[in-house]
Write a structure and sequence with these properties.
single chain; 2 domains; secreted
Length: 227
């Protein structure tokens, strides 16, 4: 009896150990599979991050060189969506910021630091051109001037206002007409015509919106003013 009982005990112990071994092996396999899945997912995430195109300031298509300010701007869309001006990843004017309006929208930026100095909009349909002229005359040398239209930016413009804007480097301002879309980046004291200007005429045969042309967008790198 003693041997029979001992034999049974040995069998029970053996079964227990075998069961424990099998369970531990299955557990380890599952752990390995889970770890493998985690590592595989991490590798895929890393690969996705490495293939994702880099984002540049203001969402422009390429990085600006040193001592340049990145900017991106757009005109308004008809009389529904306001214009937008961004410099160095800072949105200076937009409908979301609630600081845009019908007419000519303008942001002034320090040419050395990129710091925002002021934002204004001037109603060129129902307003008066005099405040625009007075404001243009106060702009200091070395100031970056970004301008964009919303709805109509030309009806109240006169020769004096157009001349002052042309002195900032604009060439299209002389031809800016009723409901044209226009974006421009120039500067006070600029010696040449600005390369940063886009202009789309209001033309009923080509307009994207009824009575208004398509939105005009522009991006680029503004050279920092040097002493």
């Amino acid at each position: 009896c003693f041997l029979t009982g001992a034999a049974k005990l040995v069998v029970v112990i053996a079964i227990f150990l075998l069961t424990f071994y099998v369970i531990s092996q299955v557990f380890e396999i599952k752990m390995d599979a889970n770890l493998g899945h985690i590592f595989a997912r991490s590798a895929l995430d890393a690969a996705a991050r490495s293939t994702k195109p880099p984002r540049y300031k203001c969402g422009i298509s390429k990085a600006c060189p040193e001592k340049h300010f990145a900017f991106k701007m757009s005109s308004g869309a008809a009389n529904v969506v306001g214009p937008k001006i961004c410099v160095e990843d800072n949105v200076l004017m937009s409908g979301v910021k609630n600081n845009v309006g019908r007419g000519i929208n303008m942001a002034l930026v320090n040419g050395k630091t990129g710091e925002l100095l002021d934002t204004k909009f001037f109603d060129m349909w129902g307003g008066d051109v005099a405040p625009l002229i007075e404001f243009l005359k106060t702009i200091q040398d070395g100031t970056i001037v970004l301008m964009t239209t919303y709805d109509d930016g030309a009806t109240k413009l006169n020769e004096e206002a157009r001349k002052l804007i042309a002195e900032l480097g604009s060439t299209s301002i002389t031809n800016l007409g009723f409901r044209d879309n226009w974006v421009f980046c120039g500067g006070k004291g600029i010696k040449t015509k600005s390369p940063f200007e886009q202009h789309i005429k209001n033309n009923k045969d080509t307009n994207k919106y009824e009575g208004w042309p398509e939105v005009v967008e522009m991006e680029g790198c503004i050279p920092q003013k040097q002493d």
